[in-house]
Amino acid sequence: MLKNLEKFKIPRYEQVRWHILTLLTESKWDENTPLPTEQEFADKYQVSVGTVRKAVEKLVDDGVLTKYQGRGTFLKRPDFESSLLRFFKFRDKDACYATPTGVVKKVMVIEGIEEINEKLDIGKNKALIYIERVRIIEGKVSLSEKIWLPKSRYQAFVNLEPEDFENLLYPFYYTKCGQFVSSAVETLFFVANHVDPYLDNNEQENLVKVCRIAKSLEGEPIEYRESYGMAEKFSYEVNII
Fold first, then answer.
1. Phi/psi at 118 (nearest 5 deg)?
2. Which domains are delineated in the chain?
């Protein structure tokens, strides 16, 4: 099964790593299902267990897989606890930390936007799916989000209505379209003179804008998102140990 890659003189473990990655993406691997054992992979690809182990360890280091002692190796979702959005003070009326609920307000197919398409690494005229979404705590909007997706990857969304979307988008991307978010890059800006229709702010109230490019297992961009929140609700705090 590795013959197609042998002519490129790629190290054996890298060939196995590539095939495991292909298995995960093409089969829509369930993150709750353990991967085959190293011995099973070794038999499948006709390589040594040591070669498979090196390939798996590389995927663990890359953040694609995670190992649980006694349970096996699993597909890993990114840990968004390190997201810049964590610095917004999401609190309920009792001043306790609260997880916002995501509600999609608008979804539509639009023509390509050169700047957005460039971020998604697709042709400038390629169609997009555009989503407007809010994050709500106790009936009040805490974040306003604009999301752009390559239409070619999310065909199943074309005929969906806003109410068809689930609270959490990334698992929904995977179950509906097979698009697994493995990592993301975020950039933060402070924005002035921007009125957001969902935050109901005025021009004198500054906003924080967090731009995110989410990537697939192969490292390809599959979502570009802009999240807006009130600057007064943003507090940057880091513990240095």
1. -65, -40
2. 3-75 (1.10.10.10), 80-233 (3.40.1410.10)
